[in-house]
Write a structure and sequence with these properties.
Strand content: 15-25%
Structural class: alpha/beta
CATH superfamily of the largest domain: Thiolase/Chalcone synthase
Distance between the termini: 16 Å
Shape: globular
Low-confidence stretches: 333-337
Order of helices and strands: EEHHEHEHEHEEEEHEHEHHHEE
Oligomer: single chain
Strand order of the largest sheet: 1-7-6-4-5
Length: 337
Amino acid sequence: MSKIYAAITGVGGYLPEYVLNNYELSTLMDTSDEWITTRVGIKERRILKTPNTGTSFMAAKAAEELLKKTGVSPEEIDVLIVATTTPDHVFPSCASMTAEKIGAKNAFAFDVQAACTGFLVALHTAAGFIESGKYKKIIVFGAEKMSSIINYADRTTAPLFGDGAGCVLVEPSYEPFGLMDTIIRTDGSGCEYLKMVAGGSFRPASHQTIDNAEHYVYQEGQIVFKSAVKNMAGVSGDIMDRNGLKSEDITWLIPHQANLRIIDAAVQRTGVPYHRVIINIDHIGNTSAASIPICLWEFEKKFCRGDNIILTAFGAGFTWGATWLKWAYSKKKTYKV
């Protein structure tokens, strides 16, 4: 039997309408457009303001666009995997809520929590399902309502994060298009430096945790920054070295949109020139697990069948990884594998 590859055959995305720019942030805290832009490269970010909506709302919007573009019906979907740190509820899963919203009645669905690396972990998981030969159509999401866990009195974290969702359809290919290799790593000794202190089983919500503002993103910036630079850049080079890929072989480098200086480190390690690096952090911000699929969605028209693409990310855990994939179709024309 021919080898089965897990190919991306379509993308979808959704960004909330509300734009929170640096000027508005400067009215909420001691910061400025210049301070934010020079340090992280972000000018604005999207915030979900629609009442009574959570991450599954955005994921469903992204999936509806994907299904419309690819001509696939919701009933054809076998699996939904949502990478998120901000599910609507602790349970049920965001994936199950998304499946219900889009009418994916024949799919099983579950969430993946690997922080900003979540989309790569979910994509790697989907590839295993596809390569088994048992599943034919899987939607993989990165979706986050980061505004729900951000303290807008904290100038060290509030300027960084935005909301949004992206998704990809993964199908089997009997030609060498799709996920070619993935490296995922975790170092649990970094857990203390990037986390939400309260709200889990270790420290459940209480009056004290709320009064102490422990239900927001907490990070020790310098430690996180140094680890991200080292590990995201390192794994980007490692996956190229392992597969004998040179910088000239890489059509596109798509790094997690965390910080321009972290992106710079990955670019330097891979040697990929800047005109072949996908960057949208200036107007999207850091959308955690959603950042890479939003990049795929926003820049889809640039990708052509056979392009070598490196995806790379770093996040809480600490967890980091890189994926080498060969793009399976050109422009917006779905390639039927």
